Amino acid sequence: MSFNGVSALAFLLTVLLFNVAVSQTGIIVNLKIAENPWADSHVEEKLDLMLSTISRATIIKVEADAYPDTGPLETSHLDDLIEYGQTHNGRFLIDIFIDRIDIERRKAFILPGLLFRYQVYAVAVGKIRIIDIKKARLVRLIDLDCDLKAKDRWQFIDDDSFDADLKVAADRKIVLFDRLEEKIAAKIFEEVKKLSKGIHFGD
What we know:
Blueprint lengths: L2 H23 E8 L9 H9 L6 E4 L16 H10 L4 E20 L3 E18 L4 E20 L13 H31 L3
Parallel strand pairs: 1-2, 1-3
Antiparallel strand pairs: 3-4, 4-5
Helix pairs in contact: 2-4
């Protein structure tokens, strides 16, 4: 075989090995988050920063225009999602659906009719869906529930959910939701990190 032939063969083998390596280490991440009525969302930026620390796997962000639009509990488009994952060299696909991010007031009776307690929280509710592209199946569906307490108010007799002391100031909301988004991103990051370890050890 000529030198040029050997070089061409070596090049093809390198490309093949590279593609195999990518297909074995790709984790496709799709984040879909509801609008926050109180503050701008920075979950994606926070998550991207955390994901950049993962060295065991290649993190692949979805192309929104080409990605199948499904809800977390839908299974009818599973084949489309698996095909998307295979096309983009994914080993796992992780969908994050944050359906609600808001302020929530919770009421606790201490002495019914006499003593009440109201608590105000920043909350985020959603699902994390993990699909194993190699095995072509849904492997996990996880509840994503995060909250942070903002206010805690005791009331004697009044039982007033509109108490002015329960209101959260605008500047306080910005700080509160920033901390909540850190918590959300950290929870998602832990799930992705688990997947990357599985890939690393040949799962």
